[in-house]
Amino acid sequence: MSHFESGSLTGKDLHLAFGHNKVLRGIDLHVEKGTAASVIGPSGSGKSTLLRVMNRLIEPDQGDILLDGRSVLKDNPDELRRRIGMVFQQFNLFPHKSVGENVAFALRKLRKLPKEQAWSEALEQLDKVGLKHKAEVRPSTLSGGQQQRVAIARALAMQPEVMFFDEATSALDPELVKGVLALMTDLAKDGMTMVVVTHEMGFSRNVSNQVVFMDGGVVVENGSPEKLFTDPQTDRLKKFLSDVL
Ligand code: ADP
Ligand code: MG
User: Fold this and answer.
1) What is the chain's mean pLDDT, rounded?
2) Distance (Å, whole) CA 77 – CA 74
3) Measured in Å, how far apart are the chain's first and last C-alpha atoms?
4) β-pairing verdict for 218-223 and 210-215
5) Is the CB of 20 under 6 A from ligand 1?
6) Bridge partners of 212?
7) What pTM was computed for the model?
8) pLDDT score for 158
């Protein structure tokens, strides 16, 4: 795959409440340039909300977000969303556009490329995820795994500095998970800065180089996979690991 101009990402003392529900209670997180961090933790612990706050789909009540050491809170949120690519559990492809148009559309709107160039770059991105031959068809004719690879190609076409994945394989049939994880593994090995919310403990342990365990809106443990998986320090992480492994 290509060479990335990836950057570091920092969240500082991030707080967010939905009404009286304090979902993020002072999150500090630093992901170094070129690091793939996985975020694990029980359902409802605030993992998805953290991603949404860090790319400013939701504004934090308190705290700061830094890309490459510089606060982005005063920037145009659209600019930040170009710099941070996001892939969701639901692929969110436009059903009435062709696969190629799904990628090219973003290139025209966000990177302001002229039509022809947007299309040729879209084909290039699709080629990297092995789906160039599907450029002319509708997303619904693809398997879930292929659709997710299109969503990843679309995010990568923005030339993001950081990629977020929120349970990108959770909606897929088991036999389709492997292809998507392989693509994410390639990205990590190529030095993309990544924050990956996942239930795939194999990915967390064997591919990611940093593991962040969240519970109750705080980061409970944060460190290398070896450390967290073989020497958990808290009862909360011990319990979580015994529940999922
Ligand atoms: P996780 O991804 O770890 O399962 P979430 O970030 O989705 O956790 O949710 C954390 C908490 O925030 C939950 O209590 C959830 O009900 C609440 N929550 C998430 N999104 C919203 C929202 N848009 N409005 C109100 N509450 C929300
Ligand atoms: Mg979630």
Assistant:
1) 96
2) 8
3) 32
4) antiparallel
5) no
6) 39, 222
7) 0.95
8) 93
**Would you give the distance in Å from CA 234 to the centre of its chain?**
26
For 42, the 3-state DSSP assignment is: coil
> What is the best residue among 14, 20, 21 to mutate for testing ligand 1's pocket, by most ligand atoms within 8 Å of CB?
21
Q: Which ligand is nearest to the CA of 44?
A: 1
**Minimum-distance ligand to the CA of 41?**
1
pLDDT tens-place string over residues 111-150: 899 999 999 999 999 999 999 999 999 999 999 999 999 9
Question: Would you give the DSSP letter of residue 88?
Answer: -
| 45 CA: nearest ligand 1 atom | 3
Pocket test for ligand 1, best of 24, 27, 49, 55 (most atoms within 8 A of CB): 49
Distance (Å, whole) CA 23 – CA 5:
32
How does 49-83 read in b/e, with b if 16+ C-beta sit within 10 Å? bbbbbbbbebebeebebbbbeeebeeeeeeebbbb
Number of C-beta neighbours around residue 215 at 10 A = 20
For residue 140, the 8-state DSSP code is G
- Percent helix, percent strand, percent coil in the chain, to nearest 5: 40, 25, 35
What's the token pair of residue 245? 């492994």
Residue 92 CA to ligand 1 centre (angstroms) = 19
CA angle 31, 1, 144 (to 5 degrees): 85
